[in-house]
Write a structure and sequence with these properties.
The strands form three sheets. Strands 3-5-9-7-6 form a five-stranded mixed barrel. The protein has a two-stranded antiparallel sheet with strand order 1-2. Helices cover about 45% and strands about 15% of the residues. Helix 3 packs across helix 4, helix 5 packs antiparallel against helix 9 (about 340-370) and helix 10 packs across helix 14 (about 445-455). It contains 18 helices and eleven strands. The mean pLDDT is about 95. It starts with about 30 loop residues before the first helix and ends with a helix. The chain is α+β, with helices and mostly antiparallel strands.
């Protein structure tokens, strides 16, 4: 956005009754739900750091970076002008500014560099930077989440982990040892298997040099193909195995067998260069034992699923902030929109939805810091619920802006296009439900940890207690799994709000744990809409 005021005195009319741009606000201190959730999750010692970042992310300059990074999408050059393979992706400068902002704020490093409650700090940084642009969150999340998988093979992973811990962004096209910082991507999915990675056909053959293999095959989705290295799966003689595939080899030459075939033309996520790649004898290093590929990569997946939850929560907050801001600054029928009873009911319903997602995401991040066993089940449960709720919630927020919400010059269309992605990434709904079913059957300690967490909130709200009495912690069939997981997720959101004494805890229990209509605002429960909206208003 320009720092100069637009012209509102036109030849034919004066532009009035239109909200000013929502910019130059602090996305941390101006978001009471986030501020409280971070404090309750143990991140209070990071408030000064997050306050500074919140002001930066809410500035007109950074908001415009997100606009530009999506307006001018990345471009793939497979060859140079002389016909030699380069497989390089070029981005708008704003993309690199966003990457530097996130990584140097600690998005990938804070959880691993010894920072106290580093996962909570990581979550808050993602929540703030993602409101400028969600697409750049992908490579930063991949980099953050790669550390547990890299740690399985210290001789291979240690130099990469050291670079990640440094918290620097270096987009230069050169070998990793010569760079100030690195990013990592992931290439798992193949055409024939999708989420069924055991159906992967990519082959890995040992080179004879300790730990090195040649990979041959394809990957239907490769996240962030400009990364310095990739975690990938291939069939070794001992079974499905995890590998680290570097862009540059130890001798400083390109890994010529790694080829980017094309970039995906996606519904949203335009700033991020998702791709298809092929391996033509590409060299890679083994991470973990042959045949233990799924066990190795699942260390990463738990963390990427956490970020899916955070990503959807921040998209909800971004949409809510726009809707409430619009309603406070626009009048219709002699009243501000926010003072119209039906609009207030809709917005309050959206605000409760957003705060519950925010609270659960930050609490979940805290379980990673504490190595709390409740996180084993809570992660896929939260991922299922929060990510699925985001598109409908964001649509309703868009509708609150009327036609102004539907035009591409505003943020709502980009938010809406982005919103389904976190529900698809890292396991779609059915895959997540199956994961929960497996965990329930194989890990009774995780079930008991979740039960204890939910029981700790008993006695604080009658509707919650009744809901808790009806929960099924062990669905009897796949057909019942989705309903059981949804009910567990609602219980988890209510429990976090109740235990943390959130001002919207009672409203959440009345609106989500009782019979009501299916649309936002379709309820007859008594809730203090004014207090909820005052709390939700960006400041």
């Amino acid at each position: 956005m320009s720092s100069f005021r637009p012209v509102d005195h036109l030849d034919t009319h004066e532009v009035i009754n239109q909200p000013p741009p929502l910019e130059d606000v602090n996305l941390f201190t101006g978001d009471r739900a986030l501020l409280d959730a971070v404090r309750r999750a143990g991140g209070d010692q990071h408030e000064a750091r997050l306050t500074a970042l919140g002001a930066r992310c809410g500035s007109a300059e950074v908001i415009d970076w997100g606009v530009q990074a999506n307006r001018v999408p990345p471009v793939l050059d497979t060859h140079d002008r002389y016909g030699r393979r380069v497989d390089e992706v070029t981005f708008h400068p704003a993309y690199h500014q966003l990457m530097a902002l996130g990584l140097e704020a600690g998005l990938a490093s804070a959880a691993w560099d010894g920072t106290a409650n580093g996962h909570v700090l990581h979550a808050a940084v993602l929540f703030l930077t993602g409101q400028a642009d969600s697409g750049t969150s992908c490579p930063m999340t991949m980099t953050y989440a790669s550390v547990p998988a890299l740690a399985v093979e210290p001789g291979v992973g240690a130099p990469w982990i050291e670079k990640i811990r440094g918290g620097r962004y270096d987009p230069a096209v050169r070998p990793a040892p010569d760079k100030a910082g690195v990013t990592l991507g992931m290439a798992m999915t193949e055409k024939q298997g999708g989420s069924d990675v055991r159906a992967n056909a990519t082959r890995a053959e040992a080179t004879g040099e300790a730990g090195w293999y040649r990979l041959t095959g394809h990957k239907w989705f490769c996240s962030a193909p400009m990364s310095d290295a990739f975690l990938t799966l291939a069939q070794a003689p001992g079974g499905l195995t995890c590998f680290l595939l570097p862009r540059w080899l130890p001798d400083g030459t390109r890994n010529a067998g790694f080829r980017v075939m094309r970039l995906k033309d996606k519904m949203g996520d335009r700033s991020n260069a998702s791709s298809e790649v092929e391996y033509h004898g590409a060299l890679a290093q083994r991470l973990g034992e042959e045949g233990r590929g799924v066990a190795t990569i699942i260390r990463m997946v738990q963390h990427t699923r956490l970020d899916c939850v955070i990503g959807s929560a921040q998209q909800m907050r971004g949409a809510l902030a726009q809707a409430v801001w619009h309603a406070r600054h626009r009048t219709a029928f002699q009243k501000r929109l926010i003072d119209q009873p039906m609009m207030a009911a809709v917005l309050a319903d959206l605000a409760v939805e957003s705060e519950a997602a925010t609270a659960l995401s930050m609490h979940l991040a805290g379980t990673f810091d504490r190595d709390d066993p409740v996180g084993r089940l809570l992660t896929p449960i939260a991922k299922y619920q929060v990510c699925k709720r985001a598109p409908g919630m964001i649509y309703e927020a868009m509708e609150s802006l009327g036609g102004a919400g539907y035009v591409e010059t505003g943020p709502m269309p980009r938010l809406f296009r982005q919103s389904p992605l976190n529900a698809i990434w890292e396991g779609s709904g059915n895959v997540i439900a199956l994961d929960v079913l497996r965990a329930v059957g194989r890990e009774p300690e995780a079930v008991e940890a979740l039960r204890g967490f939910l029981e700790a909130a008993r006695g604080r709200d009658g509707a919650y207690d009744n809901w808790l009495d009806g929960l099924d912690f062990a669905p009897s069939s796949e057909g019942a799994a989705r309903l059981s997981i949804e009910r567990l997720a609602l219980a988890a959101q209510a429990a976090v709000l109740l235990m943390h004494e959130s001002p919207v805890a009672g409203a959440f229990c009345r609106l989500r744990l009782a019979s009501r209509g299916t649309a936002y605002g379709a309820f007859d429960a008594e809730v203090d809409t004014r207090a909820i909206l005052d709390r939700a208003s960006p400041a």
